[in-house]
Amino acid sequence: MYSKISRIEIHLPSSIRSNKELAEKFGRWDPENMEKKVGIRERRIASPDETAADLAFHAAEKVLKNYNREHIDMLIFCTQSPDYFLPTSACLLQERLRLPNTTAAFDFNQGCSGYIYGLSMAKAYINSGIANTVLLLTAETYSKHIHEKDLGNQSIFGDGAAATIIERSDKEHIFDFILGSDGSGKENLIVKNGGFRNQNTINAVPKETSSGDIYTDNHIFMNGPEIFNFTIKAVPQAVNACLEKNKLSLDEINYVIFHQANKFMIDYLRKKLKISPDKFYSNMLLTGNTVSATIPIAMKDAYEKNLIRSGDKVLLCGFGVGYSWGAVVIEIL
Amino acid sequence: MTKNEFIKEISEFCEFENNDYTIDTELKTIDGYDSLAVLSMIAFIDDNFSTQLTADQFSELTDFNSLIQTIGEEKFEDG
Questions:
Q1: Within 10 Å of residue A180's Cβ, how many Cβ atoms?
Q2: Which of A63, A72, A216, A238 satisfies CB 3.0 to 4.6 Å to A204 for a cystine?
């Protein structure tokens, strides 16, 4: 049995946080430099009562339009912002989406590598015969984890969701994966409080980064330079290992889509890997970094702009919080 | 590259206000030395010296000379 990605739809919340707004709020910031170097002009922000599961629901409704939802027998939901500790948000989505009770449903907690991990699980379940049609939802609301006085992270991250249908196929369209992890990087992108390691979230002390951003242990802390150092080492290794596992050279890859972390970082990685710019996707201008949704958002945009076409071999690579990474080659239907 | 070439080229790469700084120029006094500049410097140093500086190393830097010493003076033509 084989697998294919047959549909992708996305959903972004309606509220926009622009560079102009951030510049007015913080005063100490150059919005033009942000756009030029980091590649972000706007990002969408979920409303206070809008969760990642809500965003995933809307993306899923779009992807299930004119689709027999009785065919779905597995729902996999990737988020680091679930509705509850329990039950799993995927079960709640099964009900909201009116999927059959024969649908297996579970969450998994991953960030920027989440789409690749999700595809690997979808392929594994389908190719082993356990599932026929997987609905993979990747949705994130990092905005809710970010301190109101943290300009750095507010400028990088946006909220968003994607819904992908992966189906059984008569030929393989999702090829071999490379997956990896390095927990020594845990402190460099973390929300320390609120889980069971540090339950107390009361009276969290404000701290200041060297850039003047404020956070507490209840909020996201990200060490940008260390994350960049990690990607410089891990991403080229993952890409090369993925090509080798798939017995392909870079010349045989038609297009490359990385997790859209920020323009500067991924452009540097592109140059380091000697990937031609005309087969490399780089666009987070109006979304910011939407974590596990960046790759499917990019795929949909690339397809609609005819940057990827039927039969193309596309290399996908996600990397980030954990540290965690994954890469795969897929063929476009 | 020599130390002066390094200062000139990294300043241009990071789009600092000037490119005629000296080894005694304090990095924190440079207009444009911010968190994005640190990422640019990481990229420049990785590309030219195959060396990675950590965030902790960056936080301890004072002037260009401290940056050169942290990269490793022996990696420069005039080191």
A1: 16
A2: A216
Cα–Cα distance, A105 to A328 (Å, whole number): 24
Give chain A's domains with CATH numbers: 2-171 (3.40.47.10), 176-331 (3.40.47.10)
Q: Are A260 and A284 in contact (CB under 8 A)?
A: yes
Number of domains in chain B: 1
Instruction: Provide the whole-model pTM.
Output: 0.96
| Out of A319-333, B10-24, B46-60, least confident range | B10-24
| A289 is an active site residue | yes
Residue B78 covered by a domain: no
Non-local CB neighbours of B4 within 8 Å, separated by 6+ positions: none
* Pairwise CB contact (< 8 Å): B38 & A223: no
Phi, psi of A258 (to 5 degrees): -95, 165
- Closest Cβ opposite residue A229 in set B36, B52, B59: B52
Show which of residues 20-79 on chain B sit within 8 Å of chain A, judged by CB atoms. 34-36, 38-40, 42-43, 46-47, 52-55, 58-59
How far does Cα B39 stand from its chain's mean position? 11
Residue of B nearest to A223 (CA): B55
Domain annotation covers residue B77:
no
Residues on chain A bordering chain B, Cβ-to-Cβ distance under 8 angstroms = 33, 37-38, 152, 210-211, 223-226, 228-229, 232-233, 264-265, 268, 271-272
- Confirm whether A219 is a catalytic residue: no
* Catalytic residue of the set A11, A19, A78, A112: A112
- Which residues on adjacent β-strands are paired with residue A163? A9, A137
Flag if A264 and B43 touch (Cβ within 8 Å): yes
Query: The domain containing residue B34 runs over which residues?
Result: 3-72
Task: CATH number of the domain at B47, please.
Answer: 1.10.1200.10
Contact yes or no for A143/A15 (Cβ under 8 A): no
Nearest-angstrom CA–CA distance, A328 and A138 = 17
pLDDT of B19 higher than 80: no
Closest chain B C-alpha to A226 CA, distance in angstroms: 6
Rounded Cα–Cα distance for residues A264 and A262 (Å): 6
Let me know if residue B79 belongs to a domain. Answer: no
Which residue in A37, A38, A229 is closest to B42 by CB distance? A229
pLDDT recorded at residue A27: 83
Mean pLDDT of chain A: 97
Q: How far apart are CA A164 and CA A49, in angstroms?
A: 24
To the nearest 10 degrees (0 to 180), the angle between helices B35-49 and B3-13 is 130
